[in-house]
Amino acid sequence: MTQNESFTQEQEAKAADSGANASARFRERMAASAAGGSVVDHERVNLLAGKAIKALNDIVIEEKVSYEEYNALKAWLIKVGEDGEWPLFLDVWLEHSVEEVVNEHREGSKGTIEGPYYVEDAPELPWNGTIPMREDEPGTPFLFKGQVRSVDGRPLPGAKLELWHADDLGFYSQFAPGLPEWNLRGTWVADEEGRYEIHTIRPAPYQIPTEGACGQLIAAAGWHAWRPAHLHFKVRAQDHQLITSQLYFPGDPHNDDDVASAVKPELLLDPQPNPDAEGEMTTYDFVLDPEA
Ligand code: DHB
Ligand code: FE
pTM of the predicted model, to two decimals? Predict the structure, then answer.
């Protein structure tokens, strides 16, 4: 095996684990929350499940779906479950619409999808801390600073910012094997003026796992599997609504055709060379809506 082949195999193995891990993590989180039980009432289930089934039946009739196509769908749906890829499928092709309706009335910063790779309780760091990373972590050093404010302009001291992102190869710790547990994940506590200064590296563009059922669909349809490089955030402060968002880098070829439809123009950063250190820097302020 050449070094290149072994590298590719390692990459495929890492990506293959991600789907199953995302399913296991999601199950754990749901079990720990009230939503693990049945919190959706009969009336809504009747309405929503009824509409979803009708939409599918309408497609079958309009498009005159054949038995070959019906069976291909059946086999594929079975495989999505076997590969543990329901979180991937839903977060890529549906979550953006849920996020849109849920955050429709926010006046503060824009949110976007959470995706399948969030982990609670990342290590807490001071307002200007460095993200947990390997000693020789590859990638461009990246300084990200700003302020958390309320919509009325008031700074929010002690606001908590959780950041998680892929490494320079597009892998997330705790989902791809071989990475330290909290690699490129942390929680910053803003200072008395709501400011934060995050020291990290630039993440690479990310390809959703291509070797499982979602990848099979993408290949069969002639689509692509790319998400532009992004930083994931959750920002919270007392008496304010939590925001879940992502920020993107200008010039990424997939900002305009993100497989997960999660890019918004307000979420593009403006990185510049860092005048004081190696790498790049940028500023971005989070504006939180008060609790309803
Ligand atoms: C997926 C991965 C991401 O990093 C993300 O932000 C959204 C979706 C995915 O693989 O499904
Ligand atoms: Fe992501």
Answer: 0.92
